[in-house]
Each structure stands twice: as C-alpha cells, then as structure tokens.
Write a structure and sequence with these properties.
Layout: E1 2-8, E2 16-22, E3 29-38, H1 41-48, E4 58-59, E5 64-71, E6 83-86, H2 96-99, E7 124-125, E8 131-134, E9 144-148, E10 152-154, H3 161-164, H4 170-181, E11 189-193, H5 199-209, E12 213-217, H6 221-230, E13 234-236, H7 239-249, E14 255-260, H8 267-276, E15 277-285, H9 300-305, E16 309-312, H10 320-332, E17 342-346, H11 351-359, E18 365-369
Parallel strand pairs: 4-8, 11-12, 11-14, 12-13, 14-15, 15-16, 17-18
Antiparallel strand pairs: 1-2, 1-4, 2-7, 3-5, 3-9, 3-18, 5-6, 6-10, 7-8
Helix pairs in contact: 4-5, 5-6, 7-8
C-alpha cells in the first residue's frame, strides 16, 4: 500500500512530503488509516535535532487518531473498522513497570526513537527500497501506518476523531502533570510555566483537581488569554510576577507546585520553578530539551532543608490504555475542553507552516487533517 507521509531526511531539517510503501501488518500488529494528527512540539524536537532519531528517513508523528484497516495474525482486541487513538508507548502489560501500574514507563519505550517495530524491522519504505524509521512505532504523519496492537487504543466511535487525536499525548501529558505528578489538591496554589499545547491541559487538570489559584506564565499574549479561558485564575508573562503573587497569597511561603511545560526546557526554567514553591513543594518537569544538556542551578541546601521535590513526568504519569478513555469520558461529560484547544487545521503539505505557527505563538494545537 502507498501512503503520503511527512519525513525528515536529516536533522536539523524540515518535514518533506513523500510517498512511502507500507507493509501489511505482521503478528500482533494493525494497519491504521490516520485521519488526524496533532502537531506536538515533541516532533519538532526531532526536526531541530534536540532529540536524535536512530534511522533516516524518519517519519514523524506520535499523536493521532484513525480507523483500523487491517489486522495481523494474533490480534485479539481490535477489528477492522474500529476507531483508535495512537499510543506512543505501547504498554506490553508484562514488564516490571507495567506490572507496577506504570505503563507509561513500559520497557517498549526503548523503541520510541529506534524507528523499527518491536521485532526490530521496518514497515515503511521508500520506492527505492530504503527503510523509513517510524516515530514511537506509530508515525501519525503517515496517512497509513502499521503499529503494534498495544499502540492502538480503541475508542467510542461516537467521539469525533478530530478531537480524539489530542488525547494521544498533549491532553493526558498536561492533565496528569497536575493531577498526578504535582498531586494538586483542593485549595492549592499552582503555577504553570508555559501554557501551549501541554501547559493548557495542566491548567485544566489543576482546575479539575480543585486548585484555588492557577497562575499561568507565558510570554505570548494569546497563550495567556487561552489559559484564562481554560481555567487559569491569573496570567503573567514571566515567572517573577507569578512567584510574587504566589508568595503574596501564601504569607510568603510560595506555590504548592510549579509545573514546567515550556517548549524547550533548560535548567534555568526548572530553577525558576524551584524558587517559586513553598517548603515541601513540588516542581514538575514535563518539557523536553536538548538531550545533551545537563544541570539545574538550584540550591542543594534548600533542596534538602526545605524538603522540596523535583519530579519528572512522562505522559502525565498515566497509563495510556486507561488515560485515553478516561480523558474522552471527561470530554463527553463537559469536564474537559478539547475543541477549544485546536487553533488551526492543516493539510499534510502545510505541516511546516503549522510548526512555524506554533513557534510564532499562534497555536495551542495545530492538527493535520488527511
């Protein structure tokens, strides 16, 4: 089968639209026709070279929704015609992490940048026969793609695929950063640093958990405006303003938590969050940065003596197979805004424009419609 796909030939580089050959699904695999793909910043990290891909050409995309077209031998839980959301961490259900209820840390995550499927071979190829690497085993930037059965989560067909795509990454990652990683409680004061596609959902999660003040921080006026619509109580352009307010609200103590969801993180961002929180408070690091960057300039004395915590968060510390239906149920019940997150829709050929719009601060989430 042939498919249009957005691929990187090198990094740094831009996405190029090519036609690829798509193999039939093998054992425990499915062929999905993606209808929508979210333009997450994580894929831009590949394009910018912040995160290396192991195989070029490399087909991007890890957030998307579509319809099952074929099933391979051994597939038990999916049928042709099922509506699915891609899961970029295909939880095996058997490794130590899955057994501990930490499916987001499944050992299959080792394949996210590898480019292959779980058997070590490729499913996408150029017309010349060159293997094409797949992002996170799913490559939602290809209209047709083969993925593991565990990487396709069945959803209610009544839910529009156009919004369901967002719960494959951005929504649960942000939501869980507040609800799980920051453990927001009723009455908490929460700072969300960076309110783009991830941070906007950290705001929604903090609101749902009962935070009394949700302070959004972003230099982009449009992002601050949207954060207030999504549940933030206050919005500032820098962390000093947010920290001053958090301390004023808490008799000088500081925020209960600061969630770092900026586009490209540095150690200085984490340090700003660290300075804004109270004793025994939590800084949640959800953002990605360059894989070669190390170091967080924080006071080790303060870290120990104030009993502060720096907590990493992958996929909002949620289990994909549970988080996807949970998020969509919250959407159906009116507790989670999804339609409002989508700023603009693009054709696949407009994908580079979509990322330029993201960097210009024009989008919360751009979506590719195939």
């Amino acid at each position: 089968m042939r498919s249009r796909a957005a691929v990187l030939l090198e990094a740094p580089g831009e996405w190029e639209i090519v036609e690829v050959q798509v193999d039939d699904p093998k054992e425990f695999e499915v062929l999905v026709r993606f209808q929508h793909a979210g333009l997450c910043h994580s894929d831009d990290h590949y394009a910018k070279g912040d995160v290396p891909a192991m195989a070029y050409p490399f087909c991007g995309g890890h957030e998307g929704a579509g319809v099952v077209e074929k099933v391979g031998p051994g597939v038990r839980d999916l049928r042709v015609g099922d509506h699915v959301v891609a899961a970029f961490i295909p939880g095996c259900g058997r490794c130590t992490w899955c057994a501990r209820g930490m499916q987001n840390l499944c050992d299959n995550g080792a394949y996210m940048m590898q480019g292959t499927q779980l058997d070590g071979t490729f499913r996408l190829h150029t017309d010349a026969g060159q293997d094409v690497g797949q992002c996170s085993l799913v490559s939602t930037f290809s209209e047709y793609s083969v993925l593991p059965e565990w990487g396709a989560i069945k959803i209610d067909p009544e839910i529009p695929l156009s919004v369901a795509a967002l719960v494959g990454c951005g929504v649960p990652t942000g939501w869980g950063s507040a609800v799980n990683a920051a453990a927001v409680q009723p009455g908490h004061v929460v700072i969300v640093m960076g309110v783009g596609g991830i941070g906007a959902n950290a705001v929604q999660g903090a609101r749902f958990a009962g935070a009394s003040r949700i302070i959004a921080v972003d230099p982009v006026p449009f992002h601050r405006e949207m954060a207030l619509k999504l549940g933030a109580t206050d919005a500032f352009e820098n962390m000093q303003q947010a920290t001053d307010l958090a301390q004023a609200l808490t008799n000088g103590q500081g925020a209960d938590s600061a969630i770092v969801t900026v586009g490209v993180v540095t150690g200085e961002h984490v340090a700003e969050g660290f300075e804004s929180i109270r004793k025994a408070g939590t800084v949640v690091l959800t953002s990605m940065g360059n894989v070669t960057e190390y170091g967080i300039p924080v006071s080790l004395f303060e870290l120990a003596m104030f009993q502060k915590r720096i907590q990493g968060s992958l996929f909002g510390m949620m289990q994909p197979t549970r988080a996807v239906p949970d998020m969509l149920r919250l959407y159906q019940e009116g507790h989670l805004m999804l339609d409002e997150l989508i700023t603009r829709r693009y054709s696949l050929e407009e994908i580079n424009q979509g990322y330029r719009d993201m960097h210009a601060g024009l989008n919360l989430r751009g979506v590719v419609d195939f």
